[in-house]
Amino acid sequence: GTTADALELEACEAEPIRVPGKVQSRGVLLVVDDGVVVQVSENLPELLGVAVDDALGRPLAEVLGAEAASGVRLAESPAGGPLGDSLQQLTMHGREWLVASHLGGDGSVLVEAEPVPAATGDGEPTTAVFQQTHAVLREAATASSVEEIYALAATGVRRLTGFDRVMVYRFDRDYNGQVVAEDVREDLEPYLGLHYPASDIPAQARALYEKNWLRLISDTEAPTARLVPELHPRTAAPTDLTFATLRAVSPVHVEYLRTMGVRSSMSISLLNEGRLWGMVACHHVSGPHTPSLEVRAAAETLAAGLSLQAVVRAAADRAHHAQAVADELRRLVGVAETEPLAEAVAQPRLLELLDVDGLMLRVGGASAAVGLLPGDPDRVVRALVDAGGSAVAETAGVLTCDALPAALPDPDGALGEVAGALVVPLPEGDVLAMFRREVAREVAWGGDPGEKPVTVGDDGVARLGPRRSFARWQQVVEGTSRPWSVEDVEAAVAARRLVVEVLYRRTRPDLGAAL
Ligand code: BLA
């Protein structure tokens, strides 16, 4: 039932992913407080060759060697910058390491080190990595559409990192997502176009990804390494790993990846003014995969640059479209010098430009319409104005609904073929309304979004697990029109402005050409 689902989702959202007390075992983590090592990952002996007890309580220089320790940028790197900011290649205990460090919220410094792969097999030399990154960014500058920029992100990140599959995954306003670009090994099934429900990436994970822009789960089969001691000795709390690149990932999510047949996963945040609008999601199925910290830093830079370009591009496209709508409205309103306003505006040309199936304008006593109208347009308009609630959205005074059959109390006969309406209330009870017909949409999901098995953990708490199947699952959505976009609402706002302007001019003929 709905209540049980809500409770289980709450459990998902409550998982403390910032403070797992563990890291992934591909590298080591040392927490340094006031120059002294106070916490380390338990794999320190295996990877660095230093016993845990020989590290705790000692100055960093004694643990890493004086030269290496002096290379670590201690308090200079506040958390929240790009991964590349603090990156250093250092020799420690006879081995080459890539070292990242950042200042944690509690004032201690988190030092993370990953061995540089012995063979240069999959790692590109630094110059090549940066040349590649810049080449893709340059190409994006001349891209002809947002979609082309998404495609460049998928191919660019795949070429840099060598993952089997790289996708651009874009959220809608409820954080459901769709794969909008993909570069994938030829023998694997494409995921392009597939939808996934918002609950696949819970809210606290999205919040974390707005702060830390890249995460790599290099091997879903590898053991994790606990931090010793469990709590930070000064704060008596688990150390916050929000910005740690080695942070051990939620077991629920690891299970999700295993079910999907994924051995390694990396994702990079796509942001617009700090808000997550999508992710570059990478999978490796043929084995564990560990692009070096340097390659990851380059991939992060590439994704950030392309995200910015995609955002700018989308805004420019929107402005361009809005201008075309405004120009056409102005032209039509010009016609209104000789004709009634409603008739002048209700033109087929405008249907095309606004991407609607029908349009109605009522001013004063006069009303005119073009294209497809509901059986009872007045009732539909009134229902939307009176409604409120979740079925009808209101933005800048514009009401939209793309599922009228469900939103109307008794839709029989009132709708005809119409399933979507956008209503712009005008002064004096006048109204501009646009309509869209019903389209049975097929939505291809990556697995049945409703299937979330519940498991009861050792602690007796029921938790929602990931789906067991990711086989393509086709859903037919009925009773809806194509959704109303931000651009649609912006065009409606422009139309309202012009209509109001014309009406005002008519009431003040003395203003003449001044308006
Ligand atoms: C995290 N879920 C994630 C991440 C992705 C997805 C990309 C980020 C971590 C990563 O890079 O792997 C989801 N991955 C996808 C999707 C696609 C993909 C949609 O490739 C599509 C192609 N997941 C569930 C349920 C829960 C859940 C029911 O399905 C709730 C218990 C949890 N997902 C979950 C959690 C994280 C996560 C807790 C955070 C993992 C972490 O960073 O610790």
TrEMBL record:
Residues 28-67 form the PAS domain. The keyword Hydrolase applies. Residues 145-304 form the Phytochrome chromophore attachment site domain. The keyword Ubl conjugation does not apply. Coiled coil: none annotated. Keywords: Chromophore, Hydrolase, Photoreceptor protein, Receptor, Sensory transduction. This is SpoIIE family protein phosphatase. The lineage of its organism: Bacteria, Bacillati, Actinomycetota, Actinomycetes, Micrococcales. The chain holds residues 48 to 562 of 784 of the full protein.
